[in-house]
Every structure is written in structure tokens, then in C-alpha cells.
């Protein structure tokens, strides 16, 4: 063998050294060297381009800050979540208005089927990769460089999470490079379960059955199928898992929440089948499960259209949002060390924190629990819709906001109403208007209008009671006045009415203007509008503190229904004002209470004032009051007090009432003030309309909760309120004259501030006359046949005190219909001139004449004309009439007599002249006298005394 090997080796060497093998050897060397060169070149190119790629990658991410673990985790978990609103008793209303609905859930509350569907479709190697899949990245890069029509995508769930929570959706290599880098880092800071849970909570899923944009698996499950994410079956899971690739293409709903057509739904169903196929490929489901899911009718599971909260409850959702925003603004300001009170005073601060609060509210996932009773609220909306007596709907020209074309729009009578729980201040229900699509203004909380006569108890009567100026039945003056410096000349609802001295209780019940203006004028220097300020009136101006007309509703900017009703609840609460509120509490995502309402009562009036005012307002609902119709319409009884209100030209009508449990206010009017006092034959008088609507609301609320609405509890009289007798026209302790005149009254007083102990000083003995229906003190020269005797007159000092600085006609203090012996006795400014003559006529035995044109006539004298002379027939007082029956065959004249005793010239003669034969002249009948000097025909310049006038009696007037 050894010898054989040596021989073989010699042969190889001989062959290698031969000339032919020399060429083979050279070729091999060349090939080998070229191979080495190729390897070196390829290695160099790889290193070069790899370096360039790494350099380029580094340049793309050079501006990306090095984020800490805490920073990245905070950004990942800071996804926006939609806040929700609730009725009282935690009844769900809906979500706050926002561009995107989202509700967080945990991985434990998500069906494993959904998780498998997502991973099979979006990231098959999620459990294994470190945040990126290089092969997928290179594939995506190659598809992008070659502009391939097939784009398979290369983003893992981690990368998608980074894109949505830290970066943006910008399409660029820079964003992609940062995404890769941050995804790799994030895998070191978060577990796979945390990443998966975050991803499922942030990914968009198209639209829900309300047409809202949605994100998050729980929101998608609830919004598309109406079930929790933990209850999704296989086909439902596959359908939802397939949506994120093209959310608005695959969602089954339109932007109005309506189901798409079968054709429109097909892309989503096809995508579901693709997801099921992927699940089968990777082994998440069996062949049988796949076949069963493929044949499943997913369409039947889609929810029917669901109204958004703002569609079903437009005024309520907006109101709760705005009130929640105010609360958040204060919370944020306090966190920054700023006094929340400054937000009302400084508009820039208010604007800043309002914006911040809005962002927090819409993205913080808070639960806002209101005080609104769902049944009450729904019922009041129904009553509002069904009521038919609002008034006339007009038309106006307007521009279409979309096309700009001129269109006709309705201008209906609007309404606003609110119900407040007296003891707590909770707003239980309200009516914002009649048609939110036509007018979005909340007429219960945001519409500010003159509150008319509902202002009277708040600003005049209750403060006067509190100051001790009046008791519940003290006299007030219903007499006209005219202010000299500005010609202000107010009138009552009935412009010709002047009731004179009447009880305050009556003035409240019949809602007289003149008494409240006079009363308010007497206390105006004490700035009673401060009471309004303490009861939550928010738009008071300096003028509202000093203007007389404020007492009858003449506010500069008006009041809202909420403010007005809330103020009346002060009387129900014993004089304690509890600010009305609508948000009970606010909770964060974890159920922590971040806001809880706390009442801060303010004692505005004493309990005595509150009770007496309530007792006076009870009369508004009784016979003779302005709300008797409302009381008659109620199908239950309770201890109610109320006040109506009507503004100038019937532009607004109000009714605010309360019992021990609730206060309810109702307003009617047009958005742009115009009279309601039209088409009354069709809709009834405006006051009747608001009376009826108020009663309908209460009857409907009674049907829901009869024990609460028709409470048997009554207002309790405090110990400080006592009953006392007094003189009804002075308000002082009764005198003998007052008692004899029958004017003693008994009513309620606050013994702590005012009792009628001062002796009455209103009466003096009086002789009076009546001129043009008014009573005046007789002058010494007034003929006695025209004087009323044996009455009691009013002391001039008393008259001056009652009329006050506003003055007025003293003769109107006691109207002529009083039926007692008290007369006003005002002084008359006589002119010392004879009155104008009158014109007489005689028809069918009745002598009549026109009234004298003079304004100081107290009566008329009738004379017969005989032989050219005048014979007195009768005196007639001015208020007794302008005619009398006379004997035929006699001619008559009439003369007017004034308060000073002057007679007018004779009227024209009327009647027939009858010739009387002259008696023969005899010694027994000598003609020794003239006609003017006979006892039967006294001289005309003489004035007969009262004994010669059988019709002369003393009349009494009210």
C-alpha cells in the first residue's frame, strides 16, 4: 500500500508539472481570487449600506426625546374616555356630546374570542416578538419602495399603540422610524397583557347605532351589538376585530345611526369572514366552528337606531354639560391657587378655565349624576307637547344656514318651567321650551325676562314685612300718582281703577300696581333689592336698586324662571334661601367622588316674614285672587301659595307657586317680546293660559308621586306671628271713631318688629260735598243743602302720611261705595267764580239738563218761572242725577251751584206759559206786593236752608 501511494503521488506531481495542467491551475487561481474579491465587495457593500441605513434611521429619530418609563406609561394610558350623565337614582341618560365615544374596560372583561380574533388578524406573533417583526418591516418597506399595489402592513399591536397614543397618523419614514424605536422600548416597560389591554381600549371601531364615532372594544360591543365585550360570540368577535382596518367602510351604521343597506354592509361581512379564516389558519378555532360562524346571520345582531342623549334630551344634556363645566372650571382654578370667585369677575380667567374644563369633561370619562327625576321630566315634556292654548304662532323671514336662501320659519309662543325641591334645592324637572330644533335657548334657566308682578312679594311686600313697616293686612294706598320730575304715571292692570285704602293682603291677591309702588317708595332708601341679590338674582344692575318700577318687574335684564322660582322657595323654607342645583355628584373612572354638592343656606327673611308672606299669597289662589282658575283646575288639594305676573302689553305671563315640598314656576311669552293678548277668543286670555298650564303640570306630577306633590304638610305659624286688631285705614290701634265706622280689622303681625299699638289718628268730624264723584271737605260758604252731615272725615295729617311724597288725589282714598259714614274730606281749591250755565229740556213731564262745564259744581237748583219771576222748586246734589219730574203747564230754569255757593246764570226756559186771570181789585184784596217779595216766591238771590228741601239727606261713600 505504501509503495502504491508513493507511485500515485509521483504521477500527480508529474501531471501537475505538465504544460496542460498549468492552464488549469492558473484558471483556478483566478477564479479563487475573483471569488475572494466578490466576497470582499459584497461584505463591503452590506456594511456600507447597513451603515447608511443605520445612519439614516438615526437621523430620523434624532429629535425623538428619550422618554422615561413613567412618561411612556402615562401617555399610553391617558386615552380619552367619554363622560356619562345620569338622572337621579343613577338612571343612565347617555354620553356627553363629543367627537368620539370611548369607555374603558379591563382585559378580564373582554371575551377571549375577541382577543384571539384580534391577534390572528393584526399580530400573529404578538406573544413572541419584542415590539417589532423585522421581516414584516422589511416587507412593508419593500412594498413602499416598489409602490406595490399590495400593502400588507407591518405594524404590530405595540406599534399601533405607539402611533395612536404617542405619535400621530402622519405617513412618513420619520414617524415610522420613531414608531419602531418606541415600540421596542415600550416592550421593556409594559407587559404583553398591559399592551393588549391598552390597544383594545384605544383602537377606533367606526360608528355606533347613534351615529357617533367610537373607540375601544367595550364601546364597540355596546354600540354595535348592545352587549358587553365579555359576552361577544365568535361571529361578533370576528366582525368587530375586522373593523379597525377600515373603520367607516366596515361599520354597519351611517353617520345618523341608521343601518346601512345590504350592499353597504357586505364589505364588513366579507371582512368578518377573512378574520374567521385567519383564526382557522393559526388554530384558534376548529373547522366546525369556522363553518358555523361563516353561515351565521350577523345582521340580526346589529342594534336598531338609538337616539343620542342630546337628541332625546337636548335641553337636559346641554344644561348638565354646562353646569358640569362650571364645576370643573372651579376645581381647576382652585388647583392652580386661584379663587374661583375671580372667574365671575375676570373674563380672561373665565374663558381659560372654561376651555380647560370642557376638555376635561369630554375626555375624562367622568360620571355626572344629576338631581333630575326621569319620570317627572318625561311627564312634563309630554304635557308641554300636548298643551294647545299657548297662543298664536307667527311666521318670520330667515336665512337657511346651509343654503343661504330666504325661508319662512315659525315664531311660536315659548314656555319655560322648573320644579325645585324646597328643602334641598334639587331641581327635579324643567321644561326648556317647545321645540329644540326651532329654538335651542333653555327658557327655564337661560332666558331672562321681566318677571312682572311676581316681583312684588320678593322686593316690596316681604321686605316691608321684614322691616316692620306693615303687617299682613296693613292698609296700603291704591291711588294714582304722577311723578313731577319724569312724568312717571303708572296705573293698575285696570288703568281706570283706584281702590283707595285697601289691606296689603287684598293688594297682593288682586295684584294691584299702585299700592306696591307706593309701599316700595317708602322703603326704597333701605335698598331692598339686596334681598334679590341674596336670593340668587344674577343680573342686577345699579338701576335695579333705585328704580321704582323694579318693584313691578322692571328689571334691567330680567330674571330666569329658575331664579324667580328659587326665590319663592325661600318663603317655603322659612326665609332661608337654598340655591337650586342640578348636579348631585361627579365620579371619576375609578368611582372616586371628585365633587359632591353641599348646600349653603342663606337666611334672607325671618321665619315670621316668610310665613306672613306665604299666608298673603294663599289668597292669590282664593276667590278674588288672580290664580283662582289654577286652583280650580287642580285635582288634589295641598297648602299652596302662589303669585301671578303679567308684564307690559302682556308680553310675558307668569305663575309661581309652592307648597311645603316643591316650588314650581311657569312662564309664557315669545322669544322676541310681543303681546300675547291676541286671538283670545281662540286661546283664552294670557293669564288663563298660564293658569291652566301650571295646573296641568302639577296634575301630571301628582299622578307620578301623589304623596310628594299633594303633601298634607302645612306651613306652620311661628310663635313670633300673632293676630291683632287694628284700624283698617290707618293700621294703628283701633279708636272709637274707627270702631263706630266699622273699620276695625284683625290680621297677622310679627310681634318682634311691629304691632299696632300707637293710637289711631285718622278721623275728624266732617262735612263734605261730592264733586264729579269725588268727596271733598265743604267750605264755610258751601250751601248747606249740598253738604253731607254727621260723618267722619280723614285727618289732613293722616292724608298726607298715607299719600306720602308721591301725592295723589285724596278724594280717592275712600271710594264712594264703602257703605259707611267715613269720607275722605280732601280740600278743594275753589276758583271764586260763578259756574257755567247749563242747557235744559222738558220731555214728557221730565225736566233734564246737561252738566255744567265747570269742575267745582256741587249741585243744581230748579226754579219755576211765574209772571217773570223765579220760584224755588228743588235742590239736587251733583251725584243725585240731572233730571226730575215736574208739573205740567209750568216753565222752568236750572242753575248750577259751586262749592263756594256761587250760582250760574239761568238756563234756557222750558215748558208752557199758562195765562192766569188777574183777580179783581177789591178792598179785601189790595195789590200791595210784588211777585218777587211773596213768601211763595222768594227772591232768587236768597238761598233756601236745608229745611226747605225735603230730599236733602246725608249720604255716605266708600
Could you explain how this protein is built, in words?
The protein is of the alpha+beta class and 958 residues long. Helices cover 36% and strands 17% of the residues. The strands form ten sheets. A five-stranded mixed β-sheet has the order 2-1-6-14-15, covered by helices on one side. A five-stranded antiparallel β-sheet has the order 10-9-19-18-17, sandwiched between helices. α4 (112-122) runs parallel beside α10 (234-242) and α10 crosses α12 (262-281).
Mean pLDDT: 86
- Label the overall shape: elongated
The strands making up the biggest β-sheet line up spatially as 2-1-6-14-15
Helical fraction equals: 25-40%
Determine the N-to-C terminus distance.
Answer: 164 Å
Low-confidence stretches: 921-958
**Helix count?**
31
Most strands sheet: 5 strands, mixed
Q: Which key features would you list for this structure?
A:
five-stranded mixed beta sheet, 958 residues, 31 helices, five-stranded antiparallel beta sheet, alpha+beta
Quick overview:
By secondary structure, the chain is an alpha+beta fold. It has 31 helices and 30 strands.
